[in-house]
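so i finally got all the pieces together for this one. its two components total, 549 residues if u count the protein bits. some of the lines might not be protein, just check the labels. i wanna see the whole assembly predicted at once instead of chain by chain like last time, that was a mess tbh
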Amino acid sequence: MSVPSTGSPAPIGAGGVGGTPILAARDVHRTIGDVEILAGVDLEIAPREVVAIVGPSGSGKSTLLELVCGLQIPDRGTLTVPSAALMPQRDLLLPWLNARDNVALPLRIAGVAKVEARERADALLRRVSLDAFGSYRPDQLSGGMRQRVSFLRALATDRPLLCLDEPFGALDAITREELQSWLGDLLDDRPRSVLLVTHDVEEAVMLSDRVVVFSPRPARVTATVVVGSPRPDLEAAPGAVPAAARPHRDPTDPLIVAARAEVRDALHRAMASAPSEGVR
Amino acid sequence: MKLAEPRTADQRPLSTGARVALGVLGPLIVLGAWQAYVRLANVDEILLPAPTTVVTALVDDHELLWDAFLRTAQEIVFGLALALAAGLLLAGGMHLSRIFRATMSPLVIATQAIPIPALAPVLIFWLGFGLGPKILIVAIICFFPVAIATLDALERVDPDLPRLLRTMGANRWQRMRWVELPAALPAALSGAKMSVAIGGIAAVFAEYSGYEQGEGGLGAVIKTAQLDTARAFAAVAILAVFAVLTTGVLAGLQRLLAPWAHRRPGGPA
């Protein structure tokens, strides 16, 4: 199911999913200083679709996220994005705010009054049974707990697109697995479009509907792999919950195994075809 | 055997009671040695009064000393408050604008080179003998540690934090209010803590330089004590105790306003 990039936008219907894209990047270029980082990236994300980007480290995944989140602008190409909420690589919780006020922060910045922002943060914490931790400061929470709070903060302002930058990279393997299934549940409950950047093929395959493989720097899309069975809800009923897809994927499911192999293969091909100076 | 011990005795934090007891014991040992030296070596008490003589002076002159102390304490407290506000504002401004920073840096450092004995009489000549110039002198001396500590803390703020706030749509003021100000606050209080002792010295110098009858504070007490060395020492003892107490209050304020800066182990996993 691997689709080599031809310079035209990665076809959204590759696995049978459709809908008007919520994010559309066409031929996006970005050069910082003398270093060409993105060399014509094409990418689309449908509403409620979870797209993972995997690529070698230093391949420009973070730059793409910064473009999507409005921290940088492309040098060339068009980028149509909705307002996006970022969950950064490190939790980046404000040490002086407790968990509840950290979740409420984006609401406060958006101008929501203190009382209402706190109520909405409490409701989110209650939804994931973390309300007992609302008054704890980040330094009193474990790494896994901080990542959860950080994710809730990204969810707080109903922005239609979530950008997750290696969300579980700093966690130990057991906590990471636990959080991946937690995240799958939560996304199922509050569907959003998600752009997940990761270098962990396993994480990409377990969490996303579609995996986009980046070449080494300067990055372009070299392959797109649709994971598992397509979700009917992306095309038809917006309220429907996919049955066969996320969450709770079985890592030994033949469809998942096939997707994993395909992504690894695409990554290796991308690395092999790249000029060696592009690989760090 | 030694490896099995999780912590050596030195690493274990002392209880509050033990800390206070030891904090009292230290000075008592020094005072005991001092007392013994004066008595055993028959030192002339005009040169070095024994601690007991100083205590007698404290009791005999307590009304005079109390009034003087209130005056000096006001100068120190208001001066410190002014230094805290000015130091925070100045550091904030220098952090926000590189031009302002380049302009102010040499001026700020230059203020630290001014000897108080030279500055104090001039300021009092300009501004009169009242409380104002004395507060100002204390503030000029104390604001430097506050400004430097604050600026340092502002420079060390994780740059990813304001960036993240930008993705939330935060403007400059909001980034200041949520990130930089809370990051700078504990540092500003640390700066103030460092300034307390020199604030007392500045207040005494300011009082030395001129005051109205009966309003000279502890500086005037020291200046007019002449051969009554015990009374001058009593004034100094009051200043020392006040410095210790003020530092304690500032440390408490820091814990209250910036609890995150005092990481305590434990909590839920």
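Chain A touches chain B at residues 69-71, 83-86, 88, 90, 92, 94-96, 105-106, 108-110, 133, 136-142, 145, 157 (CB under 8 Å).
Confidence is low (pLDDT under 50) at residues 1-17, 236-245 of chain A.
anyway lmk what u think
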